[in-house]
Amino acid sequence: MKKLLDLISEELEKAFEAAGYDASLGKATWSNRPDLCEIQCNGAMAGAKLYKKAPIMIANDVASKLAESKTVTDVEAVAPGFLNMNISEAFLTGYVEKMGKADKFGLESVKSDKIIIDYGGPNVAKPLHVGHLRSAVIGQCIKNLCTYVGNDVTGDIHLGDWGLQMGLIMTELRHRKPELPYFDENFTGEYPKESPFTLAELEEIYPAASAKSKEDEKYKEEAMNDTFMLQKGDKGRVAIWKHIMALSIPDLKRNYENLNVSFELWKGESDTGEIINDMVERIKAGGFAYESEGALVVDVKEESDTKEIPPCMLLKSDGAALYTTTDLATLDSRRKLYDPDRVIYVVDKRQEMHFTQVFRCAKKTGIVRDDTKLDFLGFGTMNGKDGKPFKTREGGVMRLEILLNDINEEMYKKITDNREVDEKEARDTAKTVALAAVKYGDLSNQATKDYIFDVDKFTSFEGNTGPYILYTIVRIKSILAKYASLGKNADDAKLYLDDNGCSKQQKNLMIGLTRFAASIESAYDELAPNKICAYIYDLANSFNSFYHETKIMTEEDEKKQEGYIALLVIVKRVLEDCISILGFSAPEKM
Ligand code: ARG
């Protein structure tokens, strides 16, 4: 469907033309003074120079051509030459009615690219902590958004499962249990099926090893050697690696499920093991790589750079792969397997330099097509109320699971406070609302900025919060349920416009609905979920003022009541589509 503003612009173009001026001057914009008018056009101001005429004269000429318009009303030329106007209520109602019937409310598919989104990025063997929240929440939303506007999208978790952390675990394990067969080079039998450690042990082993490696140079070298041996395919190390994966992945899956986050692909750095050699050889043969202090590197600086961009390292001096190597090889295999038009990385913004190097190297060496779009969506840090990275009360790293549990509890208390409720139902509702609180709290901020994780604010039912949005949807659901209980069918309800027109609040709500497509498109163009949040916050506010101003269930005129119900149905559907893009849903009651 054409956008409402474009339809109004078409009307204005005709009027400019009919008045003898250039049609292109007729451009409608939303008024920046909604107290004066809904729509404005500044074409007469621009026309003044062109026609050497006072702008107010042009504006008057055009206004007179719009007197009979069915699209706009109250057209007024105001000094020095602005055109102010309102939208015709009948035209607006008709537009909203069409939106209600159209697929995705008339949003035209903007794109049909093949996109891979790289998000999540947890490192196996380490429990998910709050640092992983943003990539999961923003990544899932970007995936939903890209899908909604018509792309073919695949999400890839890109596990960190091939780097030094793997070697560290192996080193520590050998120190603790040297008798294990995995470390015996002469062992020829079958390795045990049973893992030599539990998940809980694993989660303790890694930080212990990491701490030791920072103090003990020899220990660190051992870990680097273990990493290298694993990457070279050493049998014993690969067997331990498999145990780690078998324990970690189900745990990760469970955690992401709780966040309503999912991935089509569970690939990782380790999947590049076998293709790295071939890729490196190709890059060498292309003449792109050279040796620098023993390491193999590719220059990626460009003339227009204003800061130093160091060469992209392909292999360390000992021949080991690095983070850049696995990311390049992943792009290489993504091209072979999926040939994407675009790859979007949702990763902590502190990794920007890494991705600048990887993207440039991939383009320069032909790993990706020239026209493949590579985007880095870097996000800021989630801070505590003290403005420092979010920690537990004791100052430790907060596990994601604990954080979510705390918020669930908080929400449960709010929901059950002073109320008789069914325990199970209240638990479920609390979980749904808590997730909305966390996700909306994150997504409503511009992704690149740091933000403060404020539990009290995020879980509030008032203000720009997830629970407020859900509360609005639940309010609509409850009105619709009442309507249905009278034996009437809300889905068949038709919008209605009284001869006396509609209230200001109703009009405002309808205008809000018409802004859906533009809001989704700009969120997509800028990869900015916060634009969707801003849109639904406005829409929810418009709905709530309409609700407070309007007797809906006590309205005696049946046609009028049906019209309100029809409007509510569309508002609810728009809000629901938006929150489903954001990655959460509304309960039945709350
Ligand atoms: N595992 C990485 C980390 O914890 C994040 C991975 C991001 N994705 C990527 N393709 N590099 O820092």
Walkthrough of the structure:
The protein is of the alpha/beta class. The chain has 3 domains: about 5-85, Arginyl tRNA synthetase N-terminal domain (Gyrase A, domain 2), CATH 3.30.1360; about 115-380, HUPs (Rossmann fold, 3-Layer(aba) Sandwich); about 400-580, Isoleucyl-tRNA Synthetase, Domain 1, CATH 1.10.730. It contains 20 helices and 13 strands. The strands form 4 sheets. Strands 1-2-4-3 form a 4-stranded antiparallel sheet. A 4-stranded parallel sheet has the order 6-5-10-11, sandwiched between helices. Helix 7 crosses helix 8 and helix 11 (about 325-340) packs across helix 12. The radius of gyration is 30 Å and the shape is globular. It binds arginine (ARG).
Short account of what is shown:
With 590 residues, the protein is an alpha/beta fold. It has helices spanning 4-18, 43-51, 55-65, 89-101, 133-148, 164-176, 199-215, 217-231, 235-258, 276-285, 323-338, 352-364, 400-416, 423-443, 455-458, 466-485, 504-514, 516-525, 529-549, 558-582; strands at 28-30, 39-41, 72-78, 82-87, 114-118, 152-156, 289-292, 295-298, 312-315, 342-348, 373-379, 382-383, 451-452.
